[in-house]
Each structure stands twice: as C-alpha cells, then as structure tokens.
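Tokens for chain A. Residues wanted.
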C-alpha cells in the first residue's frame, strides 16, 4: 500500500473509478463499554434505527450526521487555510464594526455555503452580495456550468449546495454531495439520565421565592421585580432557589435517554467519482475534456484533503463522545470492475495533492480565487443580530 499520487488520482477520476472510500472502526476513548452521548434531536430523542451489519439486523444510533461531518471537513480546511497550509477561495463577512464581538463568518462556516442567508444579506461597499461576481454565480450554476462555483466556492461542488432561499426558491441551484461521511454506533443499548446537585451553602427550597428582576437578573426583593398584572413575577413556576441554580437538586432519573453503550462505532466516508464526472467547466461558453478533467481532479483532491485533515484533528464529537480508531485508517479506490486498491493518505500527502491539482486546473484555464472576498453585513442584518443580542441579555432568568 503506497501513498496516493496525483497521476493515480487523475487516472481514477478520468477513468473508470467509482469511488474512494474509507471505513474506520472506532471505540469510545474510555474503552469498550464506556458510555458515549449521541446528538439529540426533537424532544431530546436520539436518531435510533436498525441497520444490517455483516448479515445481522442491529440497533444503531447516529453519532455524527452527514451534515455535521461536512461542517467538520470545512472547519479543518478553514484552519489549514488560516495557517497558510493551502490555498482556498474564501468569502468573509466581517461583523466586528457593526456588531462588536461577533467577528467574521466565512463561506466555510456558513451552513449553506455560497447560498447561505448570511452571505445573501451581506454587501461589498454599496453592492449587495447577489450583485457581485461571486453572488451571481448561483443564478447560472449547473452541472454543465460549474466554472463559477469552482472559482468562488469549490466546497459547494464537493459537499453540496441548494439555493433554496434565492429568487427561484425550491427550484434554485442544487448540487448533490459528492463527499459523504457519517459516524454510526453499532449494536447499541441506551442508558439512563441522572441529575443531582449538592449545594455547599445549604440553601433550602423554602428560602425563596426568587423573582425576575427588572434588569434581567433575578432578585429576592419583590419591590425590585418585574411585574405582570401588578404582581411581581417569580422565576420559573414557583420561584424556588433551584430555578436560579441555588439549593439542592435531589438525585433523579430523567425521562430522556442518557447516552449509549455500543459494540463499536463505524465511520463511513465515500467520495463519488461519477458525481464529479457530471460536472463541466466551460470557459467562454466552451467545454474542453482536458479542462473538465482537471477541474474534477482538483475537486477530488479537495474532498480527500478535507476528509483527511478532519480525521487528523480527532473525533471529539461533543461532551462525552470522544472516539478513537482501533486500526489504521486507509482509503480504498473501487474501480468499475470491482477491483479495490488501498492507499495511505497522510495530511502532508493530501495537502501536496491539492496544491498540485490546483496548479493543473489553473494551467488548464480554470480560475481558483486566491484573494478573500471581504463583505460586511447589510444594515438590516446587523440590526437583526443586534436585536437578538439585546433579547439574549433581557431574557428572564430561567427561560
């Protein structure tokens, strides 16, 4: 098993390669039998389902979704870009002047990439983003014309994008995900949720009530409390000290699930080469096979680089969900005949592949934007963020 070279990647993309895949077996960092906590969805539920694994029907749980994994890939690419390890088109919306403390949001952090509302409601000087060269890309982008997206937001061609909030609504520009990754817990048993708090001050439940203060804080003085219908408003239901995180909370078993134990976890990563081969990159209205191939190879290199960098950062998915591999992770190339070849792709290899692929694409006539497009929020977006911040400060204690 050798390291993947640019020529091998090019041959796979331009030839009969079907997919690059990597399947990694994982265990909780605490070892077999340690509890991990999946993401929670509506009403505190886990995404539980049955899957057929090695011929067995097993109860499984989603530990990290396709969408979450895509975000982790983008954040890994963003970190490498900030560290000047790679060249990448980036669009940045700087909120600092309009809403101090908010910082910048980039196209690698915006949930819907180039089609995100944060970019849509930003401006370059007095020009709306949608009227800039980058913003106009979505109106004409198609599988047969992916040149503009390649220049301004190639991650959209790898991880997918849907311009569902644009002028065409649900009929807006849509590109499928070519790279898909997810992490699943296999053969799981749900646990119980516990809670308790011992107050070192020994504050009793009958020491209240606590009221909602006029300043957004809580108060013990009814005269300083916010009122409703002429009466001071209690925090929570009855103003118990526990509503403002004082006093004891007796040990309880919650109604929600409290983590899972599992036999193992699996991370599935698949890069579809047919999805990339659907893309064309015309220049001046004309497509050329050599240029199309160069663009597709660059996108494949970007996908493999992002996935490799994200994996190298580790799998600390959330509190109490740290996973570790039980074997060395490798990439496999599946050909149209079903032949499987294994490759070792280290972060340094992935970065070098991407650099070579970008140069080859440029040599073929494709643009890959190197200068960051700097935007600021529109007045209405800044006002919306400011009002939200003010609402946060004014939210009653206990909400």
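Reply:
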């Amino acid at each position: 098993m050798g390291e993947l070279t640019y020529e091998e990647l090019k041959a796979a993309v331009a030839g009969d390669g079907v997919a690059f895949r990597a399947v990694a077996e994982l265990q909780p960092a605490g070892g077999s039998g340690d509890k991990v906590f999946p993401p929670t969805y509506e009403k505190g539920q886990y995404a539980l389902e049955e899957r057929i694994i090695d011929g067995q029907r097993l109860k499984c749980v989603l530990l990290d979704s396709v969408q979450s994994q895509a975000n982790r890939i983008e954040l890994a690419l963003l970190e490498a870009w900030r560290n000047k390890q790679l060249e990448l088109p980036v669009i940045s919306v700087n909120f600092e002047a309009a809403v101090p403390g908010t910082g910048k949001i980039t196209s690698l952090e915006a949930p819907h990439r180039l089609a995100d509302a944060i970019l849509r409601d930003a401006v370059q000087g007095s020009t709306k983003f949608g009227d800039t060269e980058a913003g106009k890309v979505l109106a004409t982008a198609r599988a047969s014309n992916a040149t503009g997206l390649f220049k301004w937001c190639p991650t959209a061609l790898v991880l997918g994008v849907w311009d569902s909030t644009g002028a065409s609504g649900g009929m807006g520009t849509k590109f499928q995900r070519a790279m898909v990754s997810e992490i699943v817990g296999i053969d799981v048993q749900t646990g119980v949720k516990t809670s308790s708090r011992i107050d070192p001050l020994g504050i009793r439940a009958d020491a209240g009530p606590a009221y909602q203060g006029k300043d957004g804080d809580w108060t013990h003085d009814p005269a300083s409390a916010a009122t409703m219908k002429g009466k001071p408003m209690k925090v929570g239901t009855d103003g118990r000290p526990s509503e403002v995180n004082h006093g004891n909370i007796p040990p309880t078993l919650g109604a929600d699930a409290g983590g899972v134990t599992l036999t193992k976890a699996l991370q599935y990563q698949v890069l579809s080469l047919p999805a990339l081969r659907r893309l064309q990159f015309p220049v001046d209205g004309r497509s050329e096979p050599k240029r199309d191939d160069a663009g597709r190879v660059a996108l494949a290199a970007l996908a493999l680089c992002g996935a490799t960098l994200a994996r190298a950062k580790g799998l600390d998915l959330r509190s109490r969900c740290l996973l570790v591999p039980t074997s060395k992770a490798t990439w496999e190339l599946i050909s149209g005949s079903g032949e499987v070849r294994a490759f070792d792709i280290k972060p340094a290899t992935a970065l070098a592949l991407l650099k070579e692929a970008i140069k080859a694409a440029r040599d073929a006539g494709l643009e890959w934007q190197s200068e960051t497009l700097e935007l600021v929020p529109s007045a209405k977006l800044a006002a919306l963020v400011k009002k939200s911040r003010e609402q946060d400060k004014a939210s009653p204690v206990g909400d």
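The radius of gyration is 26 Å. The mean pLDDT is 94.
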